[in-house]
Please model this.
Amino acid sequence: MRNASPDTAQVLVLPPLVYGGVFVMGLLLHLVFPLHVLPTTLVRGIGVVCVLVSCPLALLTLRALSRAHTPVDPMKPTTALVTEGPFRYSRNPIYLALTLLYVGVALLINALWILLLVVPALVVLRYGVIAREEAYLTRKFGDAYRQYT
Model:
């Protein structure tokens, strides 16, 4: 999934594919060997909160990127260093939103397999996406990015 352009992060895989792939694997495992996290009432409440937090976080992040006229797609060149909105608190708010959404849906389904598979998804995300994005942003924005981090 590498982009030929040198002006990109050269991520190994698109983050939604990571989350989607492990979610489907977890769902299949849950259908064959159902394991539940906790009592349904409790986990559904936590799941709803996770989903409800993830949606505005994702929208605020997309809005901040849009205002800076820089793409969300890591396969496209970044045109601006965004430090406003959710980026004031996290360097990766869109991945935080995706993780909250993933965990929230796993809890709503009450599927332990799906929840457990978030760990390998986060490892792939950290080393196959975030590390590459951070190296790219350091090359592209230099001291401004280092100061931001």
User: Anything to note?
Assistant: The mean pLDDT is 94. The CA atoms of residues 25 and 114 lie 8 Å apart. Helices lie at 15-32, 40-67, 93-109, 112-116, 118-141, 143-148. The first helix runs from residue 15 to 32.
